[in-house]
Design a protein that fits this description.
Layout lengths: L4 H9 L1 E13 L5 H19 L5 H8 L1 H11 L6 E8 L2 E7 L6 E7 L3 H7 L4 E7 L4 E7 L2 E2 L1
Antiparallel strand pairs: 1-2, 1-4, 2-3, 5-6, 6-7
Helix pairs in contact: 2-3, 2-4
Length: 149
């Protein structure tokens, strides 16, 4: 999933008394579908446990919907690629991003999203623009963090 500057800005500026869940999941190069699915089940248990510590019912409700979000991540899983899946969600916000680099796995529930690891790693990637044209057409591509858009 490509992350634009606007997406990153939205994630960084988000703040809510309802709570915000930041989840970083690393998938090593040699991870199998089965082991990734088991990891996601374990992470789902952690999300439910951590959200129960909060008195805010809305964040606990959002955490219960992690099962649906978990299935989206499992669908995006591709073996033989080392990457980090970043999931930012709350009762009124959702963003899922893949980063082609290793970030430490973590789960953080606060009033805003935990973005320092994401900002640090994205700052290391160069951004390129590619213009392809002929006498009739022109197309502009953006290459950033291993993705073309």
């Amino acid at each position: 999933m490509f992350i634009s500057d606007q997406d990153l800005t939205d994630i960084i500026q988000y703040r809510s008394d309802k709570g915000a869940i930041s989840l970083y999941i690393f998938s090593p190069f040699d991870e199998t579908d089965k082991s990734f699915h088991m990891k996601m089940n374990s992470i789902g248990d952690s999300v439910r446990r951590e959200s129960e510590k909060f008195e805010n019912r809305e964040i606990r409700f959002a955490a219960r919907h992690f099962e649906t979000l978990k299935e989206q991540i499992v669908e995006h899983f591709t073996g033989c690629k080392a990457k980090t899946y970043c999931l930012f969600f709350s009762p009124d916000f959702f963003k899922f991003v893949e980063v082609p680099a290793r970030l430490r796995e973590c789960l953080v529930i606060e009033k805003n999203f935990h973005t320092l690891p994401l900002i640090t790693i994205l700052g290391q990637f160069k951004r390129y623009g590619v213009l392809v044209f002929d006498s009739r057409n022109a197309r502009l591509f953006n290459y950033y963090a291993g993705k073309i858009k």
